[in-house]
Amino acid sequence: MLIITTLIHLTVGLILAADAVDEDRLDAQLGLILLGAAFYVVGIAAVRAINKKPLATWWMLTALIPVAAGLWWVVLR
Questions:
Q1: How many domains is the chain built from?
Q2: Which domain holds residue 21?
Q3: With contact defined as beta carbons under 8 Å apart, do 15 and 69 qualify?
Q4: Which stretches of the chain are DSSP H helices?
Q5: Measured between alpha carbons, how far is 66 from 51 in angstroms, rounded to an integer?
Q6: C-alpha–C-alpha distance, residues 6 and 14, integer Å
Q7: CA-to-CA separations, 37 to 10, 41, 58, 66, in angstroms, rounded
Q8: What are 44-77's pLDDT values in tens digits?
Q9: How confident is the model over 16-43, as pLDDT tens digits?
């Protein structure tokens, strides 16, 4: 559970960093949002690997939540 909490904090931090980037740098904003989602997916895979579970799981789809929230917060707001 601690690893998942840390992943959420890292992902939210990268989304907030994307919000701090100038608005004319949309590529950097999207990159930070997607980087946060990538760390999230890799972290979930690492937890699954540590626990010797199959890596492919529906938990990977939860990475779409911070992507959607980040896009709304940074780009569409």
A1: 1
A2: 2-76
A3: yes
A4: 2-20, 26-50, 64-70
A5: 24
A6: 12
A7: 10, 6, 15, 7
A8: 999 999 999 999 999 899 999 999 999 999 988 8
A9: 999 999 999 999 999 999 999 999 999 9
Structural contact between residues 40 and 64, judged by C-beta atoms closer than 8 angstroms: no
DSSP helix/strand/coil, 19: helix
pTM above 0.90, yes or no: no
What is the residue-averaged pLDDT of the chain?
Answer: 92
- Pick from 39, 34, 30, 31: nearest CA to 10: 39
Pick from 43, 38, 39, 44: nearest CA to 59:
44
